Amino acid sequence: MERGRMIRHDAAGNPFLGGELFDAVQRGGVFDDSKQFVDAVPTTSPDRIRRRFAARRDDAGFDLRAFVEAHFDVPPAAAAAGESDGGRDRSMTAHVDRLWSRLLREQTPRGEFDTLIPLPEPHPVPGGRFREAYYWDSYFVAEGLAASGRLDAVAAVADNFASLVERFGFVPNGNRTYYAGRSQLSLYAGVVDVLDRHRGADAVSRHLPALEAEHAFWMDGRDQVSPARPAHRRVVRLDDGRVLNRYWDDRGGPRPESYREDRETAAAVTPAERPALYRDLRSACESGWDFSSRWLADPDDLASVETTKIVPVDLNAALYGLEWRLADWFGRAGEREKARRYRRAAAERAEAIDRCCWDSARGFYADYHVPSERPTETWSLAAVAPLFFGASSEERAASVADVLERRFLEAGGLLTTLTRSGQQWDAPNGWAPLHWMAVVGLRRYGFDELAREIAQRWLALNRAVFEAEGRLVEKYDVTSAAGTGGGGEYPLQDGFGWTNGVAVALARLLGRERPLLDRPFVRE
């Protein structure tokens, strides 16, 4: 629950919404994009709006869309909200520099009924339909901001995270009330590490209490799990007593921002199965991979989603990275007991990742399926996370590098998975954040040549689309000359925060003799 200013909202996170009007608008397809309505702001009391709706809805010729537009300040549709500036006559780097001022925003809620959660500092938004800051996106944007010399903007990202942790106890998925039941891949420490690299220890110390609070959020319930109750919120107890983490959402029901889509997906299962399905859909959103065959028992059926039954390799590698960084930073601050505690936690987690998430038959990391007590069958680029966060051994990193080169590398970069399911976090799509993690992770373990090849192919694809269309986009088809990706619950978005950030950060990284992130971080 939010610890500071209380925002009144229903159980799903919509202030003063919900009920028959919300259901009618979302299920009736008044807007092509379900997110458009939850970002709308009532222009008068929601109670008054509901009474007017109840009184008029059965009138002859009642127009629901006209009613909504008369009572809400509705944001533009996703297709009209893109960030392309038609800049084909400029370089891609100049285009990104031009867009930073547009994507760095200082927003305040438009009245008490807005779903926007205020942040104290300007914050990067991805662009298009994504008009708010997102947790894991912001780290990759921060790397690009640092490469562009905008360190004050990086410090603002970290300060916003600290503010969110103070109010909520964690960093929500995004700064909207309907996102406040979940977080995302733990990368606050990554943003602080950017500041550490450029500004030193003085930039770190102020964030240590919030980083500890974030770690406590992910580990909440560790003392409550047992053989009889092996999972609680985001922690999972394995059969040998070790504890790892999973994705979760503390709220249930259909996602407000994808209400129609979730209700349609749930129609394929029995009413008794729907609460678990909604939870698993929401939990997949905490991963950022919404959606992917990673979470599906049947890659062709979204209703087979089982996110909460899976121990994800990337989440646990990220928490290893958080624990390792806390050990390092507390050690440098002279707090030896805390340093020892976090170093021990990191070592225990690394051993558990080895046991559960290493598939020796494939020579590759995978997510762990708790009910079957074995790695999942999905080949996923999440396998680069142990390299990026330094949780892998040298031998296993070499095996991962070999598999990436043989099975994942395409003309435009790396496939997200080897499965073609139609979901956006599957083949043939490639994504900027995963390319950053792959390139940095490979360089961390000395595979500089492969890392350079991946980075060059990805940047060449980014440039080709930019030169043809004057924009950078959310995702790309790494197998196609056309380049732009597909799939997902909404049209392809341009802008685009993390694509911009990774593009300039990779370009800078390629110009260095040694890796930008060479730190004593690799698992010993």
Keywords, please?
three-stranded antiparallel beta sheet, mainly alpha, about 45% helix, about 525 residues, 16 strands, 19 helices
Task: Quote the average pLDDT.
Answer: 92
Q: Low-confidence runs (pLDDT<50, min 5 residues)?
A: 1-8, 513-522
Proportion of β residues? 5-15%
In total, how many beta strands?
16
Largest sheet descriptor: 3 strands, antiparallel
Give the fraction of residues assigned to helices: 40-55%
- N- to C-terminal distance: 38 Å
Task: Summarize the topology.
Blueprint (H helix, E strand, L loop, with lengths): L18 H9 L7 H4 L2 E2 L3 H11 L7 H8 E2 L18 H12 E2 L17 E2 L10 H13 L3 H18 L19 H12 L2 H4 L2 H12 L11 E2 L2 E3 L5 E3 L13 H8 L7 H14 L22 E2 L1 H20 L3 H22 E2 L4 E2 L2 E2 L4 E2 L9 H4 L5 H15 E2 L2 E2 L14 E2 L1 H13 L3 H22 L6 E2 L19 H14 L14
Antiparallel strand pairs: 1-2, 3-4, 5-6, 6-7, 8-11, 9-10, 11-12, 13-14, 15-16
Helix pairs in contact: 6-7, 6-8, 6-19, 7-8, 7-10, 8-13, 10-13, 13-14, 17-18, 17-19, 18-19
Explain how this protein is built.
It is built from 19 helices and 16 strands. It is mainly alpha-helical and 524 residues long. A hairpin with a 2-residue loop joins strand 13 and strand 14. The two termini are 38 Å apart. 54% of the residues are buried.
Could you give a short description of this structure?
The protein has helices at 19-27, 35-38, 46-56, 64-71, 92-103, 135-147, 151-168, 188-199, 202-205, 208-219, 259-266, 274-287, 313-332, 336-357, 385-388, 394-408, 432-444, 448-469, 497-510, and strands at residues 41-42, 72-73, 104-105, 123-124, 231-232, 235-237, 243-245, 310-311, 358-359, 364-365, 368-369, 374-375, 409-410, 413-414, 429-430, 476-477.
